[in-house]
């Protein structure tokens, strides 16, 4: 395939309700949507999940726009690519900026699958026809409010509940949910809000029978997480500390955790996500697919990658209606019990809702 043109958009998709983590509160999903056109007319779509501010990693939306349009795409366009993996040697001189690279890699995979008349899951090597989902809940105002929100999602069919925590809104909040729902799969996501000095509080979470504590310590850290994991019965799941296959190797060597949340955007695309889950599976590390409050485009890619055998735990791939009144794909992603069905259509498997995409676009550029 040879990419001959591209179209990039800044998109603001309103959230149904604000979503709060330990570091921000969001009222809309702000991202970039990338559309690549190959020489035979096949079109592929990807998303850069970089936020407005670089609070999750070093990337931010305006910077991602500049990097994609002025650095990444000029290296990739009008080059013969046999496979989506081939893009990486063309951008090897650009360090990190994985969300920007992921937008291109995912769009290339969409084109690659369509050209072979395969679903994206098939092109990636996936075997599942449905993937199990969980739901992610932002920080709530009180333990009682958190219990109420969790109850609603359990009634909707979710079996695994992830709750965001931060200092002052942690043990008592999760304990209230555990008391109400003694048998539900629960996990806590700290988004790097704690330090080793907080070990005694984190050890209290061992009493709540959580399936994991996600990224309790600093982003990028592997050493302190290893020290913490040695003191906890609860498994640590790494998120921001695993951004590459090499990070996963170091995690295993140091025993920094027992689970990886593989976010396609964070690691630089479907190609790298596939490599990490293979390595993790070979080394006894469980994995699941995390999200970035994704639009339907990125969510469709997440469904496809989660069909690989290394994804062993319920994924953060909630129904579109969990976050959005209106998404930019059709049909929107819906639950089938506690699962999401894998689309049988070629490529991403979903059509673009042009009306919504145009309505949510605040800036666009053809390349």
What can you see in these coordinates?
By secondary structure, the protein is α/β, with parallel strands linked by helices. The chain has two domains: 3-117 and 352-366, Enolase-like, domain 1, CATH 3.30.390.10; 122-350, TIM Barrel (Alpha-Beta Barrel). 35% of the residues lie in helices and 22% in strands. It has helices at residues 61-76, 87-90, 98-115, 120-124, 143-156, 171-180, 199-204, 223-229, 245-254, 264-267, 270-282, 296-305, 320-323, 354-360; strands at 3-20, 25-38, 43-48, 130-132, 134-137, 160-164, 185-189, 212-214, 236-238, 259-262, 286-289, 329-330, 339-341, 351-352, 361-366. The strands form four sheets. A seven-stranded parallel sheet has the order 5-6-7-8-9-10-11. β5, α5 and β6 form a beta-alpha-beta unit. α1 (61-76) crosses α3 and α5 crosses α6. The chain is globular.
Mean pLDDT score: 95
Strands ordered across the widest β-sheet: 5-6-7-8-9-10-11
How many distinct helices? Answer: 14
Question: Percent helix among the residues?
Answer: 25-40%
Radius of gyration: 20 Å
Secondary structure blueprint with pairings:
Blueprint (H helix, E strand, L loop, with lengths): L2 E18 L4 E14 L4 E6 L12 H16 L10 H4 L7 H18 L4 H5 L5 E3 L1 E4 L5 H14 L3 E5 L6 H10 L4 E5 L9 H6 L7 E3 L8 H7 L6 E3 L6 H10 L4 E4 L1 H4 L2 H13 L3 E4 L6 H10 L14 H4 L5 E2 L8 E3 L9 E2 L1 H7 E6 L1
Parallel strand pairs: 5-6, 6-7, 7-8, 8-9, 9-10, 10-11
Antiparallel strand pairs: 1-2, 1-15, 2-3, 4-13, 12-14
